Amino acid sequence: MSDDFLLPDLAEGLAEAEIVTWHVGVGDHVVAGQPLVSVETDKSVVEVPSPRAGTIASIHGEPGDIVPVGAPLVTFAPAGGVPADAGSVVGRLPSSDAAASPAPPPAAPPAPAPADSGAGTERRPPAAAPAGHASPAVRSLAHRLGVDLAGLSGTGPDGSITRSDVEAAAGTGGTAPIEPLRGVRRAMAANMTTSHREVVPATVHDLADISAWAEGTDPTMRLVRAIGVAATEAPALNVAFLGTDRGRRLQAEVHVGVAVETDAGLFVPVLRDVTNRDVDDLRAGLDRLRADVAARSIPPEELTGATITLSNFGMHGGLYASMVILPPQVAIVGAGRIHDAVVAKDGGAAVARALPVSLTFDHRVVTGVEATGFLRALLTDLQNPS
After folding, report:
1. Is 339 inside a domain boundary?
2. How far apart are the first and last CA of the chain?
3. What is the number of other CB atoms lying within 10 angstroms of the CB of residue 231?
């Protein structure tokens, strides 16, 4: 008896993954642990190993298909081997409302029909596709563009839904090519939507005078250290908000997520327990995380568990920002472009090296006094010479 191997949850909370490339084909014999397929999650590209030895009877999906967790990836053949026509079942991922199964054995050829005498014989046309029918490829496109096929009227043969119908419904009609959201960008869109729906953001800004910094000071590490100091002095911003009914959890340690921009999208690897590590250790840890992000080989666990986030957007430009908080976190610190600014000093005006700082907090959980107390502690540490 054949059986399906389903896409496992490759990371905590994973909902789906995109097929990148297959490493096996129909008829291949595999051993336990052998890579079957590479898939892209919202965090990295990972290989999915075979759970056991066996022969591949069919594979489900092609590169580019989005596969939900729990959907079939491959079907293993029964002990007797692969059916002769197994190659015909390789193709695009079936629609979510149709169970995937290996191809049935070939049926016996039908008996030849009697010659048409021209009288008493009614020729019936082939059955039409049901209205609203869509091919797996069109269903996959609709899933990526967020189009509900149930509400569409198809313009294809026999009322089938075409790619053009889906694109028109998504407002993407025209000749310009469509670039579906994939992997990291797809996850970013979902995360930002969640934040917009759930969080009540408020932002405060200030300017840190960093003229006393020694030559060669690492701004990112100074910011990470200052966040740890501020979170210790104002622990209300280093919490996980679990919802109005459940409340908040004060975190014992400060784990700082550091936003890293890539061509594929935004990653936020996590520096652990920053208050108990020195600057050199933190810098080495961040360099390693960034290298793993660039290689798309970062373990999923290195991208989870942040208690507060740093966005050092000033290295690319900009002074202040109202940033987006990712629940269950309740705060994010933004660092703007370091520049020369006129500041009040000793009763007069002076030019100083200045670092603009923004703090966005979830006003459902954090009060204005708590937020400004955090920001004050942050600036005090940043303005320290060492």
Report:
1. yes
2. 69
3. 27
How many domains is the chain partitioned into structurally? Answer: 2
Q: Is residue 126 part of a domain?
A: no
d(C-alpha 285, C-alpha 302), whole Å: 11
pLDDT (tens place) for every residue of the chain, 386 residues total: 559 999 988 766 677 888 888 999 999 999 999 999 988 877 677 889 999 999 999 999 988 888 888 999 999 998 765 554 444 344 444 443 433 444 444 444 445 444 444 444 444 444 444 556 787 678 877 877 778 888 788 888 778 888 888 878 877 555 566 677 777 788 888 888 889 999 999 999 999 999 999 999 999 999 999 999 999 999 999 999 999 999 999 999 999 999 998 887 889 999 999 999 999 999 999 999 999 998 888 888 899 999 999 999 999 999 999 999 999 999 999 999 999 999 888 889 999 999 999 999 999 999 999 999 999 999 999 999 98
pTM of the predicted model as reported, rounded to 2 decimal places: 0.65
- Please name which of 183, 177, 174, 175 lies closest in space to residue 144, comparing C-alpha atoms: 183
User: What's 331's domain CATH number?
Assistant: 3.30.559.10
Other Cβ atoms closer than 10 A to 380: 14
| Segments forming the whole domain that contains residue 31 | 3-89
Structure tokens, 334: 């933004």
Same-domain pairing of 74 and 220? no
Closest CA relative to residue 65, chosen from 13, 17, 125, 3: 17
Q: Which of residues 70, 89, 108 is at a domain's end?
A: 89
**Given 28, 56, 89, which residue is the final one in a domain?**
89
In a domain, 136, yes or no: no
As given in the structure block, the two tokens for residue 350 are: 């002076």
Is residue 95 included in any domain, yes or no? no
The per-residue b/e assignment along 314-348, b for 16 or more CB within 10 angstroms, e otherwise, is beeeebbbebbbbbbbbbbbbbbebeeeeeeeeee
